[in-house]
Amino acid sequence: MIFAEEHLQKLLRRAALFQHLARLVSEPDAELKERVVNGFQRLDPIGDLQENLFVRTRRAWEQADPDKLRTDYARLFLLRSPHPLNETAYGEGRRLAGRENELADINGFYRAFGVEVSNENPDLPDHLTTELEFYSTLLMKVAYAESLGLFEEAEITLEANKAFLEDHLGRWVGALCREVSERKAPSPYPQSLSLIESVVATECGFMGAKPSPLTEPLAQTPLDKEPLTCPLAGSGKKK
């Protein structure tokens, strides 16, 4: 029984950590810095995660200017960012299965476990914040099922954890982290993404997941780069 309680506590700690990581890449508001700093004070590194990386990220958030957070986030991740926070902007998302199929697969995971993306949240289902929150939810569902002795349900959820890491979350965070680091993005975002990458890699080890990493963002097409305009606009021609 003691072992079971310790096991459940570890699952819940991992769930809390993933929920906290989601905050690190959510769009800043006036209270975000305070929530992040308070969250770091309640959490500890897990597994083989290097403690100095955890500490560096916490200090970067403690030293961050709340107003600058908003402008840096917008410049780094919003609009036509060179390093977007959406999975389908990376690697094979559009080249093979196609973006719509990738999004359908992600939504399939969400629906299978009764999770819906809020209509009030403009982010797509493949946003890093959404994927981290979903993984946290899966861990909590495992802990809940095991606490009730529903071991078959817990095993099904664990298989979903592994599949989600291999098919989605574990595949692209490395590419995103490299993009932000190589462009020398302002603190605290490089530290935050390095921490996320390390935690996800550690989780893949826990789950025995072996994702095939995606390498880089997809090149923007001319339609991505240029605003859409009607070819007849200003021509005096009638449609």
Overview of the structural elements:
The protein is mainly α. It has one domain (2-225): Orthogonal Bundle (TorD-like). 62% of the residues lie in helices and 0% in strands. It is built from nine helices and no strands. The chain has helices at 2-24, 32-42, 51-62, 66-77, 99-112, 128-147, 151-182, 189-207, 222-225. Helix 7 (151-182) packs antiparallel against helix 8 (189-207). The chain starts with a helix and ends in a 14-residue tail after the last helix.
Q: What is the topological layout?
A:
Blueprint: H1 2-24, H2 32-42, H3 51-62, H4 66-77, H5 99-112, H6 128-147, H7 151-182, H8 189-207, H9 222-225
Helix pairs in contact: 1-6, 3-8, 6-7, 7-8
Q: What would CATH call the architecture?
A: Orthogonal Bundle
| Spatial separation of the terminal alpha carbons | 75 Å
Which outline best applies? globular
Task: Kindly report the name of the CATH homologous superfamily.
Answer: TorD-like
What is the helix tally? Answer: 9
- Here the CATH topology equals TorD-like
Kindly summarize this structure in a few lines.
The chain is an all-alpha fold and 239 residues long. The protein has helices spanning 2-24, 32-42, 51-62, 66-77, 99-112, 128-147, 151-182, 189-207, 222-225.
